[in-house]
Amino acid sequence: MPSAANFNGAVAFFHPGIEFMTLIDRLKHVKRRLLGGVGRASNRKLFLFQTPRHGVDDLADIASFGDEPGTILDVGANIGQSALRFRLAFPKARIISLEPVSGTFSELQRRTADLDVDCRRLALGPEAGRATIYLTELSVTNSLKRPAAEELRGAEEIEVETLDGFVVRNGLEAIDLLKIDAEGFDLDVIRSGARTLAAGRVRFILVEVGFNPGDPRHPLFDDMRAELTPHGFRLLGFYEQNLEWSGEPRLRYANALFCRDAAVLAAERDRQARLCA
């Protein structure tokens, strides 16, 4: 069987009997030996191809599917960090950014004023109504979950809507990319959109997930995958990986990109229908 080696993203396959060399600066020498008729290697061939880069840039991986997203829903927009990236990557997309905290929302509006972003002062959660959001020193860690006393800097009453309710009230036929950064409430946002997800209206979901059971700010990846799998979503990649703040060599949280696999979902529904028949 041929063996394979990876040279900085390029994969080389060698036939048996050919010496395996790991240094990239010797790759040309190997190819010359294999193709140039030197000794026993004269009839051997080296096949070289470039593997696509994956798992580095989440928006580039989405773009690799070919169609530019039509509608992007940015839940937990903060001051527009994601909206700026979305607009650069997808110039024609409709971007709706939701941010519930008044001061942060004003900054979001200011930073996206020239980017054709639809900003709404709103949070998504398990039920519609009013709720208290707790403010911390950094706006990116404001949360509907009460933080430790030493982190708390204030509180604010905000409006909350479910994902299903927001979709219906705004007449959204489809959400090509649903981005969620809700500081511990990410699973609640997902669950509040059960009908939307079941109807197949969402194609990609980009959500912050954790890997430490003791981390209250990030839902566990296993729980998120278990919630999304029945709706036909499959993991596409991890991005912006962060290790434990203590310095321990363990992954603490990352952005997970899920893609809805319509074919897989259809097959699962057929299987369940047969079981119920």
Automatic annotation (TrEMBL):
Residues 74-235 form the Methyltransferase FkbM domain. InterPro entries: FkbM_Methyltransferase (IPR053188), FkbM_mtfrase (IPR006342), SAM-dependent_MTases_sf (IPR029063). One of its GO terms (molecular function) is O-methyltransferase activity. SUPFAM superfamilies: S-adenosyl-L-methionine-dependent methyltransferases. Pfam families: Methyltransf_21 (PF05050). This is Methyltransferase FkbM domain-containing protein.
